[in-house]
Amino acid sequence: MSQSNPRLSLIIPTRERAETLRYALKTAVEQKSDAIEIIVSDNFSKDNTREIVQSYDDPRVRYVNTGRPMSMCGNFEFALEQARGEYVLFIGDDDAVLPGGLDKLLAEMDAHPSPIYSWPMPAYYWPLKDKKAYTTYIPTPTEPHDIDLKKLARFVVKHGGWQYYRIPCVYQAAVHRSIPDAIRAKAGKVFPATQPDVFTSMAIPAFADRARNIGYSITSLGYCPKANGISLVSGSGPSNLERWYKEFGDYKLHPTLCLELNYIVQVITDAILIAMERFPEFYGGMKFNYEAAWAFNYRLYGKLCDRRELLRKRKLVQQRHPFNVMKFLAYCAMHDIIARRQEMRKQRYIRESLVAGTPDNIRDFVHQLARKEQTPGTPSFSLR
User: Fold this and answer.
1) Number of domains observed in the structure of the chain
2) Percentage helix, strand, coil, to 5, in the chain?
3) Which of 81-90, 245-254, 333-342 has the least mean pLDDT?
4) CA dihedral 375, 378, 382, 383 (to 10 degrees)
5) Which residues pair with 212 in a beta bridge?
6) Residue 383 included in any domain
7) How far is CA 147 from CA 154, 197, 261, 353, in A?
8) Model's pTM, two decimal places?
9) Considering the domain boundaries, does residue 384 fall inside one?
10) Which one of 191, 248, 270, 306 counts the least CB within 10 Å of its CB?
11) What percent of the chain has pLDDT over 70?
12) Nearest in space to 197 (alpha carbons), one of 166, 158, 231, 224
């Protein structure tokens, strides 16, 4: 297949993370198929990103530059416009493709046509200062199965955003190009919110009924020290988060949300509400559960804020949307139990990965996974 008409566009948006990009890109070019293109979309980096990309003498690799600093979603939008593939797949510049992963994915596309393909993903944490690399999840392969997208989306709305990550999106899933094109035609942009993964997770069910989970890993998530996700979960980088949010310019949260409370706690809810608003043909008539949303978001971002602030300002919140304190506290109790169970599993994975010796870069990590047989019966685990 010619590079002017590839089957799959692997898109890697990046900005000034050359130290991790070099490994992510290496895992991409190690794929054998010539039916792919690899697009590195550089968000006006000042480091040696361009040199790293151009060091590969590989016709599948394309380097593009935004020409000026953009928001994360602006770079995603710009990168998608460069793609020529029948399917698109975004990964982060600290993520990786497993050895032979894209080759297997392309074979799956030929054997089992579907508009969307997803898979379970290992979670790799890059070394941080004096901390060694570790993993918090290594999935066990399962039988391929279909995902009922609309059923999942209804569950997410009913439970205030919880488990939105089970719905495939353009990040870490392969999506037929017709779907983001349809999203743009209806919503004006493919990424109109601050959370490209959350918004597209909730947008896709408006245009597709089912996706195929192929049951084994194609890519691995990576979390490097510069990642927004690390700052969000750990609370270690409020200045980075403020800088990230300011890049969206005059962006305003959904009008039913409370601007007097920490905006970070509300960005997932904001993306979901925008999707519901943009696609009323599917979401019209559904009632979003705000009490459950606050509980879920405080579980994710509790290190950045305090639930007591929400209770103190509940009258301001109630001016924007329904909010029952007792329902909120009940959902908090449920999420506290979930959080404790997940933390126990997470710590077990961390201990095991440190004992086994997790490589200090994600390229060596995915090669280690490819060589190692999965341990039968390992339970599935998600940080969220």
Assistant:
1) 1
2) 45, 15, 40
3) 245-254
4) -80
5) 117, 146
6) no
7) 13, 17, 35, 30
8) 0.93
9) no
10) 306
11) 92
12) 166
